[in-house]
Specification:
The protein is of the alpha+beta class. A hairpin with a 2-residue loop joins strand 2 and strand 3. Bound molecules: dinuclear copper ion (CUA). The site of dinuclear copper ion has 8 residues, from loops. Dinuclear copper ion binds next to loops.
Length: about 160
């Protein structure tokens, strides 16, 4: 079979790209352990206030985990608990959040923390706060008449 020179180049380029992509994907998934966020953690939305860790919202130092702190948030129409939280600069924080009523958003402006909070499910994300300053937490899922007032604040301090 005769292949034109350009066909050969494109075949090599195409197969080469495929191998590169599969390698990147394989290293990311199996070596670095990256995976899509799971929705396996569930909770009874009516018992949020009495279910750990949501019975004590706020920042907690943890030992022996991949992250230094756990930051627990409870969302409900139309506020977040806690309403404000201080985090030391450089802290690796696992944000754990859920909602007591309808779907809310959880976006920390200026970072790539952006989760949807669904009733019955627990949303989690690990983030390292490397910049000092104030970060607004916003609800970016329309949840009712008070949606635009639904905010909280993270203050990253030295
Ligand atoms: Cu909560 Cu919009």
């Amino acid at each position: 079979m005769h292949l034109h020179k350009f066909e050969k180049i494109w075949l090599i380029f195409g197969i080469g790209s495929l191998l590169v992509f599969l390698t990147v994907l394989g290293v990311s998934a199996f070596y670095l352990g990256n995976q899509p966020p799971s929705c396996l953690a569930t909770i009874d939305p009516e018992k949020v206030d009495t279910t750990a860790p949501f019975n004590e919202p706020g920042l907690k130092k943890v030992e022996g985990k991949e992250w230094d702190y756990e930051l627990v948030f409870v969302a409900s129409a139309f506020n977040y608990t806690p309403g404000e939280v201080q985090i030391p600069k450089g802290a690796k924080v696992k944000v754990i959040a859920t909602t007591k009523d309808v779907i809310h958003g959880f976006e920390v402006a200026g970072t790539n923390v952006n989760m949807m909070l669904e009733p019955g499910y627990i949303s989690e994300l690990v983030y390292t706060f490397n910049k000092t300053g104030e970060f607004l937490i916003l609800c970016n899922e329309y949840c009712g008449v008070g949606h635009h007032m639904m905010t909280s604040k993270i203050e990253v301090v030295e």
